[in-house]
Specification:
Number of helices: 5
Strand content: 15-25%
CATH class of the largest domain: Alpha Beta
Largest sheet: 9 strands, mixed
Order of helices and strands: EEHEEEEHEHEHEHEEEE
Helix content: 10-25%
Shape: globular
CATH topology of the largest domain: Glucose Oxidase, domain 1
Distance between the termini: 8 Å
CATH architecture of the largest domain: 3-Layer(bba) Sandwich
Radius of gyration: 20 Å
Strand order of the largest sheet: 1-13-11-5-7-9-10-4-12
């Protein structure tokens, strides 16, 4: 039997969002609404009842909610904008690493923490995997939004280096940003993953980043298939995704 688990933060006005990502989304009235369309007296050809259609317009930061970062998010002029990312960055074999034992305000997740979580999983990160880091911090996203954004946990620089050595395709977190509060100014995780040339590696060796995942606790196994491809916004730096696990 196949089970699917939704890992996506719902999108609505006033939702949690990193302050650098703007005050979005904003929902605007569309070019159609049911009342206007019904006024036109269009009829259902099967029942002769009035029919109607509606749509909406949405002002949306590319980094709203559960979303993926492209290399161009961190590299000016990078060719790898979100529309150029291979679909495999958001679809494929995945491994969840449970670091919830480190749960706490501003807690730092080190390379040793990740290594211990990998050992507990009974599996290992394979090149090309999508790795999801389960901190448990997403439990604060809606009930305690200020803490979710201002007191979040995060990966240290050596944790980023440890992940880099294992060559995943993508790393996702249940946080608004993967950096620790203390390390945010230097952005070591974003720099390591999205700017491999800073490490003497070719630009194609980037690791995509997914932020604001939810429900990682509901995945019953450490290994599963992840689905969460971005929208192909031409030339842009990120996109919301509909993320889910297939077990």
């Amino acid at each position: 039997m196949t089970t699917t688990i939704d890992l996506t933060m719902p999108i609505y006005e006033g939702m949690p969002g990193h302050p650098f990502h703007g005050r979005t989304p904003i929902f605007l009235s569309g070019t159609l609404n049911h009342q206007m369309y019904q006024f036109m007296e269009r009829r259902n050809p099967y029942s002769n009842e009035k029919i109607s259609f509606a749509n909406e317009q949405i002002v949306l930061c590319g980094h709203t909610g559960t979303h993926m970062d492209a290399p161009s998010h961190a590299v000016s002029g990078a060719a790898d904008s979100i529309d150029h990312l291979a679909l495999e960055r958001g679809y494929g074999p995945a491994l969840r690493l449970d670091v919830t034992e480190r749960f706490g305000p501003r807690a730092e997740i080190t390379a040793a923490d990740l290594a211990a979580a990998e050992a507990r999983s009974g599996d290992r990160i394979r090149p090309g995997d999508i790795v999801l880091i389960w901190t448990g911090w997403a439990t604060h996203a809606f009930a305690r939004t200020a803490e979710y954004l201002d007191q979040h946990m995060g990966l240290t620089r050596d944790a980023a280096d440890w992940l880099r050595e294992r060559r995943p395709a993508t790393v996702g977190v249940d946080l608004s940003t993967p950096e620790t509060i203390g390390g945010a100014h230097g952005s070591p995780v974003h720099t390591n993953f999205l700017r491999p040339q800073a490490l003497g590696l070719p630009p194609s060796d980037y690791i995509a980043i997914i932020e604001n995942l939810v429900n990682l606790d509901r995945i019953p196994t450490s290994r599963f298939t992840f689905v969460g491809a971005p929208l192909p916004f031409r030339g842009q730096t990120g996109s919301p995704i509909r993320a889910f696990a297939v077990v």
